[in-house]
Amino acid sequence: MSDRRWRVPADGAGVRLDKFLAAPDRLASRSRAIAAIERGKVFLNETEATAADAARKLGAGDVLRFWDDRPGSSRRQSARAPRDGELTIVYEDDSLVVVNKPPGLLAVPLPRKSGAGSVQDALVGHFRSKGKRRPLVVHRIDRDTSGLVVFAKHLESQGRLRDQFRRREPERVYLAVVYGEPSPSRGTWRDLLVWDDRAVIQKETHPRDPKGKEAVSEYRILERFGDSSLLEVRLVTGRRNQIRLQARLHGHTLIGEQRYVYGPDLMRTIYFPRQALHAFRLGFVHPQSGQPLQFEASVPDDLLELLAFLRQ
Q1: Is position 73 within any domain?
Q2: Same domain for 119 and 222?
Q3: Are residues 287 and 146 in the same domain?
Q4: pLDDT by residue (tens digit) across 26-82?
Q5: Is 38 helix (H, G, I), strand (E, B) or coil?
Q6: In angstroms, rounded to a whole number, what is the distance separating the alpha carbons of residues 263 and 249?
Q7: Cα–Cα dist 64/37, whole Å
Q8: Is residue 156 domain-shared with residue 43, that is, in the same domain?
Q9: 96, 159, 236, 298 - which has most CB atoms within 10 Å?
Q10: What's the total number of domains in the chain?
């Protein structure tokens, strides 16, 4: 792991951050210094520097850290909707299509995020080439969660698939990288949650709340990394942001989580550009044939990079 540190000397006081880093014995160019800052590789006094800090004037004694191989700090691709042929289609027949969604892409368009790409939009052209109508939504996963999502090709299949999800019948298994080590090593998270439309977040609520809904997840530890763990989490219920909030409520916030983070979590230091959550396995009954189907989605490169770093 490449990790270099410099302490600002007295004659360096008042020098801009980017200029200090651009010195020949440091990063050797201003463009490289700015790129490192933008990609989250630079820390000033143990706090991640942002693009706005590039012009910040340093003080004598300030400590700069350059973390070259920080997980998730490589240049990220834009989250445009992939064109037809670029989607990773895991399975397709006359009734449905299963896609391995990349992180950063919406599953379906959202009014509050107009212009953002989505899997559903990308499937429109794919369906049109096959004489089908617009893909029909069955379920969703979060924008920054990667993994499996299924769309129907006609209303009858959509209705039957949605009925399965309402009855909690599909197998939905996620891989999650969290801080700490849950105890016991396998168990069940049970919480009562309520969706806050104004704040657009899920919240814990009390048993007397008429809007409260049960959230149940079964977890087990797959791998331990000392201060973090890789979990398999199986959804029993399917509330919005369920795993993300439940992990936080039970003291094991997802690495990279940005929405459900507060209190002691603000001091977490492992960098990852999104919540470390991947919809790994999806199983359900075919809406027409009645045959059981099960799919697994390959783990995306950014999550593999994080796991490799944690194993060092």
Answers
A1: no
A2: yes
A3: yes
A4: 988 877 888 788 777 888 887 878 777 888 899 999 989 888 766 555 544 434 556
A5: helix
A6: 12
A7: 11
A8: no
A9: 96
A10: 2
Distance (Å, whole) CA 252 – CA 243:
11
How many CB atoms lie under 10 A from the CB of residue 12? Answer: 19
Task: Please check whether residue 76 lies inside any domain of the structure.
Answer: no
Looking at the fold, whether 98 and 144 belong to one and the same domain comes out as yes
State which residues form the domain around 102.
89-311
C-alpha atoms less than 13 angstroms from C-alpha of 83 in its C-beta half-sphere: 0
The tokens for 150 are 């299924």
Chain centroid to Cα 143, Å, comes to 7
Encoded tokens for 39: 């990609």
Q: Evaluate whether residue 137 is within a structural domain.
A: yes
Residues 6+ apart with CB under 8 A from 181: 221, 224, 228, 229, 252
Q: How far apart are CA 248 and CA 87, in angstroms?
A: 32
Name the more confident of 174 and 264.
174
pLDDT tens digits, one per residue of 79-100? 455 655 568 999 999 999 999 9
> What is the per-residue burial (b if ≥16 Cβ within 10 Å, else e) of 144-161?
bbbbbbbbbbeeebbebb
> Do residues 170 and 98 share a domain?
yes
CATH number of 16's domain: 3.10.290.10
Residues 286 and 151 in one domain: yes
Q: Work out whether the CA dihedral 234, 235, 240, 243 comes out positive or negative.
A: negative
Assess contact for 68 and 2: CB atoms under 8 A.
Answer: yes
Distance CA 248, CA 244 (A): 7
Q: Check whether residue 133 and residue 252 sit in a common domain.
A: yes
pLDDT in tens, 101-159: 999 999 998 766 556 688 998 898 888 776 667 899 999 999 999 999 999 999 999 99
Polymer length in residues for the chain: 312
CB atoms within 10 A of CB 96: 24
* Residue 190 falls in which region: left (phi positive, over 0), alpha (psi -120 to 50) or beta: beta
Positions annotated as catalytic residues are: 142
Q: Is 267 exposed, middle or buried (0-12, 13-18, 19+ CB in 10 A)?
A: exposed
